[in-house]
Structure formats: C-alpha cells, structure tokens
Specification:
This protein is mainly alpha-helical. It has 19 helices and three strands. InterPro entries: RepC_C, RepC_N.
C-alpha cells in the first residue's frame, strides 16, 4: 500500500479548534483507549510503528480529562528538547516523528517564531486534530477488524479445501494411479502459497485463491465419484437414506441408540462417533477414503434429509452448490464454515469442536445449532457458548446428535401441520 506523505487536512490551520470550540472524544471513550485505537489504525494512515508508539506516549503526558472536556484540548507545552528527553530520543529523531504524526493529521505543532512553546503563547503539541477524527478512525478500526475476521475465515476455508482435496487425490491415485487430470491437479496444488504466505495476501487475492481451491476440490471429488463405483453409480448416490420426514424414520437409522442399556447413555457412542472410528481416521474398511471425504450422518440419513433439516440460511448456501440429493460432505462442511462467523461463533470455538468431535460431528453440531436458532420462539443468545457446551458434552459422551435431529424433524413436522 502506497502511503500519501502530504499533510493531512486536519493538520492545517483551518482545522485548528477555536478559542470557544474544542473537539472531545465521543461516548465513553477515554484518552488511553483512543490512543490504543490510533496505534491500531496507524499503519493505514501512513504512520510507522515508532511514530504510532510515540503518539501513545505523548498522549500519556496529557491530562485525561482534557480529551473529554468541552472547554479545553489536550496539549503538551514542554519544549522540544524536554519532550525528546521524556521520550528518550534525540531531538532530531523526535522532530522527524512529530512531523510524521502531523502529516497524518494526528497532532498539530504550534510554535513561536523562534520555535519555542509555552502555555502563555498558546504554542505546543495539540491533539485536537486527532480527536476531531475520532469517528473516522473508529470506522476505519471496525473495517480493519472485519477484514481481519474475513481473512481468518478465508484461511480456514483454504485449510479445509486443501485437506479434503489432498485426501481425495490420495484416494483417486489409489484406484486410478495414472489419472492425468489428478496428476495435473496435484502439480497445481503443490504450487499453492503456503499457509504463512496466505497472511500476506490481500482479501481479493485470498478470496480468489480460496474459490479456486474449492473448485479444484469439487473437481477431484467428481473424478473420484466416477471411479468409486464400476457400474457408473457414484458413491454419493448409492447411499441408503431416508425418504420420509417421520420421527420413526430417523429413529430407524439410529437403532443402536434405542437399544442401549437404560441408565448408561454414555457407554454407547455409536450414534455420536461413526463406527469406523470417526471422521478424522485414516483410511479404513474396504479401502474407504479418509473421513475428510465422507460423513456417517450423510451415509445414514442422506444429503436430502440433512438439507431439509438445515436452517433457511444454510439451505441457501447449500442450494448454490448442488441439488440437495447430490450434496457431499465437503459441501456441508463448507456451508457450516460459512455460518460460523455469521452466527457470531469464534474461529477458536469452531476449531476446538472439529478437533474434539471430528469434522463430521462438528459440522452436524453447527447444522443443529443453526436450525434451532431459526426456530420461532427459540433464542440462543450466545451461539459460541452453545457450541462450546456441545463440544464439552461430546467430550463426556453425553452429546446425542441423532436425538437432536429427531427433535428437529418432529418440530418441523408439527410446524408444517402434518
């Protein structure tokens, strides 16, 4: 980003506060929180780290009340040499830094003809210009925060796409070692930027890269589908899944839950952890691909059924991927990750859920949480805390996801008047 070095208008004489008008910080904002705000946004104002830190230190030399008072402004009257001593810098370096802050419109230097400063003469380092820009700086801070959150989300999605793509490629090479499309895609993946380099990409480039990663992943899954079943019937379409919307149908595919011993619900976790050992396992029965490719819940219920139980918001995302009956595990994880920030769930809560439950159960937990939040009269005030509670219950063997699906199905059936 090229920084503009010309003086900001707020540093010019026209922006100086008059004798009877002094800008003050808005709302409950105080001196120190404002100085911290300036330090956060400083790089986007063309202000280096040293100058930003100096602003914070200079602000600390003023009276806190001056930043919120309607009849005075914060100012440092000390001579330049004295300020340099307080900052433990040379006068030359201090002069360069204060000039940098002035060009950015964060301070204003008022000096007498001989360069002196004094209260009597009304000369010194004034902070009114920065205070007058408080709303602008707060908006910039909000924008930067949103961009950081979006970058975190995109890096997380790239990680998911790469993980699923790598597993799909490994499986594809097992059953079709000489597939030319797979070889070309693997070479392309090897040229992808590293996880570290993703932090240096701007949002537009990062979003474009993530979209391409998703496209490649879906391409490999298509290739894998065509080779999984010799008769041409793909793995995704050959799974048993339920056709009706009754509670009994949901129970039928969770038979082990109903047959568990009374008083020992935590001992039978087959309804929580897939029988092949969970979605994070390596390859298992009959050469099945890693859990990153399949979902026990989709295999049991079918993608159409899970789609029907999802919230309208998640359904909107899923509808843009494929017809419900052709949705894959990758699509459901992709949609769940889209809903995570929209629900106000932190990346940490989502990552913890995936680590503890595995991607399969974590995805379904988001689907259930999201669907319940959309129910009339049902309010989940803190979805992040709700997900953490689900994660902890899973850790204790007390999370019954199929039971939650049964509840969603029943409430949906009652709501439809069937």
């Amino acid at each position: 980003m090229a920084f503009q070095r010309a003086a900001h208008p707020a540093a010019t004489r026209a922006y100086r506060d008059t004798e009877d008008e002094h800008p003050r910080l808005p709302g409950n904002m105080q001196r120190d929180s404002f100085a911290a705000l300036v330090e956060r946004v400083a790089p986007h104002l063309g202000v280096g780290r040293a100058a930003a830190n100096t602003f914070v230190r200079l602000a600390s030399m003023t009276r806190p009340s001056d930043w919120t008072s309607p009849d005075r402004s914060p100012v440092i009257y000390a001579a330049a040499g004295e300020v340099a001593k307080m900052l433990d810098r040379s006068q030359v370096r201090t002069r360069v830094i204060t000039a940098e802050l002035e060009r950015a419109g964060l301070i204003e230097r008022r000096t007498a003809a001989n360069g002196s400063r004094s209260r009597a003469a009304g000369t010194g380092l004034y902070f009114g210009a920065a205070i007058a820009r408080a709303a602008e700086l707060m908006a910039l801070d909000d924008q930067l925060k949103a961009e950081r959150q979006q970058a975190i989300f995109l890096r997380g999605q790239r990680s998911t796409h790469k993980r699923h793509l790598t597993c799909a490629l490994d499986r594809l090479f097992e059953i079709s070692p000489h597939c030319p499309e797979a070889k070309a895609i693997r070479q392309e993946v090897e040229a992808w930027p590293s996880a570290e380099r993703l932090h240096c990409m701007d949002l537009a480039a990062l979003e474009s890269h993530v979209d391409e990663a998703d496209r490649l992943c879906r391409t490999v899954l298509d290739l894998l589908d065509k080779r999984e079943e010799p008769n041409g019937e793909t793995f995704e379409n050959n799974r048993p899944y339920l056709q009706d919307t009754t509670e009994e149908s949901l129970v039928s595919c969770n038979e082990t839950v109903d047959k568990r011993s009374a008083g020992k619900p935590a001992q039978d976790r087959s309804h929580v952890v897939p029988p092949d050992g969970g979605p994070n396992c390596r390859e298992k029965d009959e050469g099945a691909a890693s859990g990153a490719l399949k979902s026990e819940y989709i295999a049991r219920l079918g993608p159409q059924r899970l789609f029907d139980l999802a919230s309208p918001e998640m359904q909107l995302y899923l509808s843009g991927r494929a017809e419900p009956e052709y949705l894959r595990f990758h699509d459901f994880v992709w949609a769940a990750e889209r809903r995570v920030p929209e629900l106000g769930i932190s990346p940490d809560a989502w990552n913890t859920a995936r680590e503890v439950m595995g991607e399969d159960s974590a995805m379904l937990s988001i689907l259930v949480l999201d669907a319940r939040k959309s129910e009339p009269g049902h309010v989940i005030f803190k979805p992040g805390g709700y997900l953490r509670a689900m994660t902890e219950r899973y850790r204790r063997g007390e999370l019954y996801l199929i039971r939650s699906l049964i509840g969603l199905s029943e409430r949906q059936r009652v709501g439809q008047g069937s």
